[in-house]
Design brief:
The protein is an alpha/beta fold and 321 residues long. It has two domains: 4-50 and 146-314, Rossmann fold (3-Layer(aba) Sandwich); 51-140, Rossmann fold, CATH 3.40.50.1100. It is 46% helix and 16% strand. The strands form two sheets. The chain has a six-stranded mixed β-sheet, sandwiched between helices. A four-stranded parallel β-sheet has the order 5-4-3-6, sandwiched between helices. Helix 5 links the parallel strand 4 (94-99) and strand 5. The longest helix has 17 residues, at 147-163. The termini are far apart. The mean pLDDT is 94.
Amino acid sequence: MITLLDIQEARKRIHGRIRRTPATSSESLGKRLDCRVSLKLELFQKTGSFKVRGAFNKVLAAGADGCGEGLVAVSGGNHAQAVAYVARELGLRAKIIMPSSTPSNYVDGTRGYGADIVFAADATAAFATVAGYEKQGWLAVHPFDDPLVIAGQGTTGLEIVEDLPDLTDLVVSIGGGGFIGGVATAVKALKPEVRIWGVETEGADAMAQALAAGHPVQLPGITSIARTLGAPSVSERTLAMARRYLESVTVVPDSEAVESLRVILERAKVLTEPAGACTLAAAGRLKGQFQPSSHVVLLLCGGNVGLTDVCRWLEPVNITR
């Protein structure tokens, strides 16, 4: 388990490298949930998601001597762009192993930061490929199962408590579980009374299945459109953090995530990924847990989504509201 001190040290280490993202209240979303609602706009982070926090912390902690040939990572989403960006900013090489099904906007974004891309059949094959590069002297930056990465992600939680000190409930998306684990560690250390609710989408529900089984479960494939939640499994570390800190994990269908994306875009004027919008969908299902005096914070973790995909998802033939 990481500690609050680990997260505070991470903030010092990455200071000046990342943005302090804003938080804003939403009256219209508050009316939907019958309580006060705020949004933590982490989608305005550099590279469009929280991932740079953990990547910077990992690489800066390793130092120049620890980076060997460069950085290598597995990702078909936001982690890819984050590691590529960190490498560029620090003058390092980056090699990203991507599943062949990775959407073109992520491929183009990652190449735009100067990384070399190697395609693998799927996420499982991609993780297996990384081991070979590590033997050649590359520093692997895991997307979620690394204490330094988790501590870096946890700096988001410090900002939430500082900017929204009267929050009562926090809703956070889960991919591999490192982000919610880091955020929960920070928030619970500073405000232990805050309730933290996890959310996944159907077809990318590795944490919910792990909690039900009592151990990490390998998903046969990722079928959700929320690709950035598509970890093939959680880890023992992140599962333990979920057990310790979370009230529950709500699993919502893609249709509700897309409808929530539309609502957030129309009401809050920000375009988030389904992986971020699903927090509103989960909050709607959890509405009975909140009181009029509650202050619910929805953490919008990323905004790397192509407009073509958004238009396709909103077509009635493709998704039913």
